[in-house]
Amino acid sequence: MTTRKLLGTVALVTAAALTACGAPATETANKAADAKLRMTVWTSNEAQLKLLNSIADAYKAEHPKVASITFESLPFADYNTTLTTQIAGGNAPDLAWMGDISKDLIAADALVGLTEPLKATEGWKYDDLVDSAAKEFSKDGTLYAYPFSNSPFALYVNTDLLAKAGQKIDPAKLTWDQVAAAGAAVNAKTGKAGFVVRDFDYKSWNTLATVWTGWGAQAWSADGKTCTFASPEMQQAFTFLHDAAFKTKAMPGPGVTADFFAGDAAFTVAQVSRSALLTGSFKFGLYPLPAGPKGKYSVIGQAGVGVLASSKQRDQAVDFLSYLSNPENAAKLAQFFPPPRKSLLTGAQLAANNKVLNAAQLQAAVVDQLPNAVTLPNHTSPAEIAQKGKTALDALWTASADIPAVLNSVCTAIQPVLAK
Amino acid sequence: MSYWTIRRRDVLTGYLFILPQLAGVAVFVLLPVGMAIWYSLNDWNVFTGKQTFVGAENYAALADDPQLPKVLGATALFSGGVVVLNIALGLLLAVLLNRKFRGVTFFRTVFFSPVVVSVVAWTLVWGFLLQDNGGINGLLGGIGIDGPNWLQHGDTAMISVVFTQVVRSVGVNMVLFLAALQGVPGELYEAARIDGASSRSVFGRITLPLISPTILLTVIVTVVGALQSFAQIAVLTAGGPELSTTVLVYYVFQQAFKFNDIGYGSTLALMLLSFVMVLTLLQWQLRRKWVFYEE
User: Which part of the chain is the ABC transmembrane type-1 domain (chain B) (predicted)?
Assistant: First the structure.
């Protein structure tokens, strides 16, 4: 091979390699005025995606300028990280579902204010929104995300397992102590688990708010500045949980998996929206959370959908959101997600599209719970608080743990983040 | 005389040959390292995209981070454990499987096969096996031993992550050692036998010196690999319980991508890079003392 040929070959290989690296970047976006909207969601449930797509199709039919609306399913466990990485990488979606990341996004002015556009949308009926539902996603009187899901935590009961263990409960007067006693009996007689706080798994400690609220405890003060994790109420609540895990065995211990919906546990605390996981393989009951020493209480987990301020198609995205959340579509979404609209919040309305739960169950477990419900602990920097709290709380999950000392160490770990 | 002398042409040809590789290194290694240095000097609000220059603030934060000493301790324990076990076990397996016996190929395949399994799949399966009511404790229970709750206590969690990492990757070192052992000239063993050398002194005075270049290579590769082990920690323990298995690379991920502190995360990443470089350079320098190269 001559030197010239050789040089030519090398140059060609280099050019080919560089072109291969650069090709995607050089492709220019479609120049047409067609809007392509993308919304990140954490559901991959086919029925839910089908409903979202059907609403999007109807919207596109009315708005020919909108070329496509894509729902991008991201795994729930990494949802916040993936969304943040997309934002940081300049590839933010136009719309996004959001849970505990909302406070950070609102604080950073990364969301578009929705109050004005929604009020201006004909037939949207802004006054129909439940105030308590809008509160979590509002700042200074402006709503930044439509709270499409307001799902109270409820107690699911596997009545088959209770019967097997000869246990009976009275749902009207149910207390946590009774749940623990029945759970321990089920565990002793059948080997199945007693009660499981779903998704806790000895990691996501914020889900334990579904228990400690019954003891009157809170993770931090109302203004979010002061840790209250070591309060006497919290100590009592964690003593109850610790006893359940290590003494009475009413709750499966660390490292033991038990899925209520697979029939492995007598009770579980989970959101009403999880009822879609019931397969009919056992008889079940669904009741409001049991009473704690401080009486009855209710806790909800919320999710909102907002428009990212960085979207290049903001107005179109806001317009689609107002369509997605209008009274008609809110009623359709209500079959999966308890809506934030007063007009839709009756047991009968919610039951209309619900195949698993009846009107009475939905009235008791959802509608009656919403007005006084507290949300799961929510704060800016949620991941850092969750991680630092978990690292400190790990020490609690041994049989000989010093509960007050561990709870104090949780405050030592998270107070600097709260005070930021 | 033309400008393009043969020498100049050769030089140009040489550069053109390494250009594709150089371009790759520049784009995928040097540029990201440069960006990490820049990020480490900034505070970056990922939600707004706003970067504020903070100078050495992130570097000063290293000294004030109460978690960092524990993280470095866990990193040393994990990497040390993985390197020692991996090299020792790899060498032992290679020596055992360097003989001719029925089924030797089968055993070589068995010990190498975890290497080709996806690390996440491998770790997920071990995650189930190591649960309190999982397969390992089931087996131990069968012989009357009450197994510990492997992933929930600091010491057993560290043992678990080291063990799963070593079993998964020991096959690579085993194969490298096998190749090295088979490269040792037979006549040296023959001469040693004639001189009446014991097996131990044959191994210590002939085998080990002659495979020392491979030992150097495997130590460097294993140290670097251990310091970069991320997936098994993320899947198996997520750094817990407490900080017992939070190694530096996982801590970098937490700070940068979970807590959105890209500046501090980049600073930690540069610290990790400097550790890898110093350790590798140190081994490279020390090789003169113990690595034997055949002339």
Answer: 72-283
Q: Which of A74, A251, A256 to mutate to test the interface with B (most CBs of B within 10 A)?
A: A256
| DSSP category for residue A156 | E
Residue at token pair 């806001």? A318
Q: Which domain holds residue A264?
A: 152-300+374-419
A171 and A292 in contact (C-beta within 8 Å)?
no
CB A378 within 8 A of CB A137: no
Q: Is the peptide bond before B241 cis (omega within 30 degrees of 0)?
A: yes
Q: Are residues A107 and A60 in the same domain?
A: yes
Q: Quick count: other Cβ atoms within 10 Å of Cβ A41?
A: 21
Chain A nearest-CA distance from B102, in A, is: 42
pLDDT in tens, A300-337: 989 999 999 999 999 999 999 999 999 999 989 988 88
Cα B159–Cα B161–Cα B162 angle in degrees, nearest 5: 65
Number of domains chain B is built from: 2
Residue B29 to residue B39: CA distance in whole angstroms:
15
Whole-complex ipTM? 0.73
- Residue B256 in domain: yes
Q: Is residue B48 part of a domain?
A: no
Summarize pLDDT for A152-193 with one digit per residue, the tens.
999 999 999 999 999 999 988 999 999 999 999 999 999 999
Do B263 and B127 share a structural domain?
yes
Q: B10 and B116 share a domain?
A: no
Residues A255 and A311 in one domain: no
For residue B116, the distance in angstroms to the closest alpha carbon of chain A comes to 26
Cα separation of A259 and A182, whole Å?
Answer: 17
What CATH number is attached to the domain comprising A125?
3.40.190.10
Q: Is the dihedral of CA B101, B104, B107, B111 positive or negative?
A: positive
Q: In degrees rounded to 5, what are phi and psi of residue A156?
A: -90, 135
How far is A80 from A60, CA to CA, in rounded Å? Answer: 28
Q: How many domains does chain A have?
A: 2
The answer on B123 and B10 residing in a single domain is no
CA angle A344–A350–A356, rounded 5-degree value: 170
* Per-residue confidence band for A24, with pLDDT thresholds at 50, 70 and 90: very low
Which residue has tokens 């750094």?
B239
Torsion of CA A313, A316, A322, A323, to 10 degrees: -130
pTM of the model: 0.80
Confidence of residue A17 (pLDDT cuts 50, 70, 90): very low
Residues B99 and B227 in one domain: yes
For B133, the closest of A108, A256, A381 (CB atoms) is A256
| Structural domain boundaries, residue B2 | 1-30
Within a domain: B55: no
Residue B35 lies in a domain: no
Interface test with A, best of B126, B133, B258, B264 (most A CBs within 10 A): B258
Residues of B in contact with A202 (CB under 8 A): 152
Closest CA to A84 of B253, B48, B46, B49: B46
Q: Do the Cβ atoms of A295 and A215 come closer than 8 Å?
A: no
Would the CB atoms of B12 and A310 count as touching at under 8 Å? no
Could you tell me which chain A residue has the CA closest to the CA of B132? Answer: A255
| CB < 8 Å to B70, chain A | none
**Residue A291 β-bridge partners:** A175
